Amino acid sequence: MAYPVTVIDGDGIGREIVPATMRVVDATGVSVEWEEKLAGELAVEQLGEAVPDETVASIRKNKVAIKGPLTNLVARGWASPNVTLRSKLGLFAQVRRARTFEGVPSPYRGVDVVVVREATEDTYAGVEQWVGPDASIAIKFVTRATAENVARFSMNYARKTGRRKITVAHKANILKLTDGLFLQSARNVGKEFPELTVNDHMIDNIAYQLVKNPREYDIILAPNIYGDILADLTAGVVGSLGLGFGGNFGPDIALFEAVHGTAPGRAGKGIANPIAMILSGAMMLTHLGETAAASSIERAIEAVLKEGKVLTSDLGGRATTKEITEAIIAAMR
Q: What is the total count of domains within the chain?
C-alpha cells in the first residue's frame, strides 16, 4: 500500500530540488503516492491565493506533506505562506537538524544538533500595531499550554531518536514573564522524563557556545524567534545552509522542508543543492516508519560527500542538481 503524501514544489529552487527529492525517495523502493498541490508565488499566479484551501485540505487528509521553500509575499499584501500553513494546520513544533558530513568543510567534527522551535507564538506570530504615527510595537506572547506542548514534543522526540539532553534557550533574566513562562513550562514537563537531562542556557550564551563548542548541544528547545535564528546558525556551523533539514509537527500532521529559502539567484539554472531537501525526505520516511529507507538515503549522501567528486557549487564543486541527485541514487544501490 502506498503512503499518500502531499507535495508542494514551492518557489525558486524548490521547483528543482523537490522533484529531485521525490526521485530519491522513490528510488528507496518505498511506495509513495504523491499528491501535488500549490502554495506560494505560483499559487497566487494560478489560483489567486498564497495558500489555497485545496492544498490545506490535501495535507489534512494525507497527514503528511513535503514542501519546497516559499516566497515571502507580505510586501505584496499576502500573509507569509509558511506562517499561514503552520497556523491552519496546527503545526506548533518545528524541528531543524544540522549535522557535519565528512567532505564538507567545517571547523568542527562530530556535530549533530537538533533545534526544536515553537512555531505559533512569540513575536513571530506577527501581532503588531502602531502607537501613534512614529512608533510601532510587536507583541511577544507565550501560553503555558503551547509551551508545555512543544516541550513535551521535544522530549518525546529525544526519547524516540535516542537523544539524551534538552537545552532550553531563553532570556528569562530580562523577559521574566514570557521567556520565564517558557522556561518554567519546560522544566515542569522535564519531570515526566527522568531519563533525560534538561538544562537551560540564555540565548546569547547558546550563540557563543555554538561557535566555540557546538558538541555541547544535543537538542535545543527554543521559543519561536530564537529557534528560527538558531536553525540557520547551526546549519552554518556544519558547513552549509544547504545541509539544514527538518519538519513541522502538529498533533496529527507532519510537514517536512529544508531550512534554506528560495535562492532566486540560483533558480532555473539547474545548479541548486538538493541535499537539505533530500534529507528532509529521509526524515519524512523515518516519520512514516520506513527507517531502513531513510538510513539508506543518509548513508548515500555521506558517501557522495565523502568522495567529493560530485558536489554542487556551494560545496566547492561544479555538479548540477541532476548530477548530484543521480550520484546519491547510485550510492543507494
A: 2
Q: How far apart are CA 70 and CA 58, in angstroms?
A: 18
Over residues 149-197, the pLDDT tens digits come to 999 999 999 999 999 999 999 999 999 999 999 999 999 999 999 999 9
Distance separating alpha carbons of residues 37 and 10, to the nearest angstrom: 9
Cα dihedral 177, 180, 184, 190 sign: positive
Same domain, residue pair 48 and 130? no
Grid cell, residue 34, equals 504523491
53 and 157 in a single domain? The answer is: no
Sign of the Cα torsion 31, 258, 120, 238 reads positive
Same domain, 201 and 275: no
Cell, residue 244: 539544514
Say how far apart CA 45 and CA 133 lie, in whole Å: 34
Query: What's the grid cell of residue 194?
Result: 527522568
pTM value is: 0.91
pLDDT digits (tens, 9 = 90+) for 62-76: 999 999 999 887 656
Residue 112: its pLDDT value, please?
A: 95
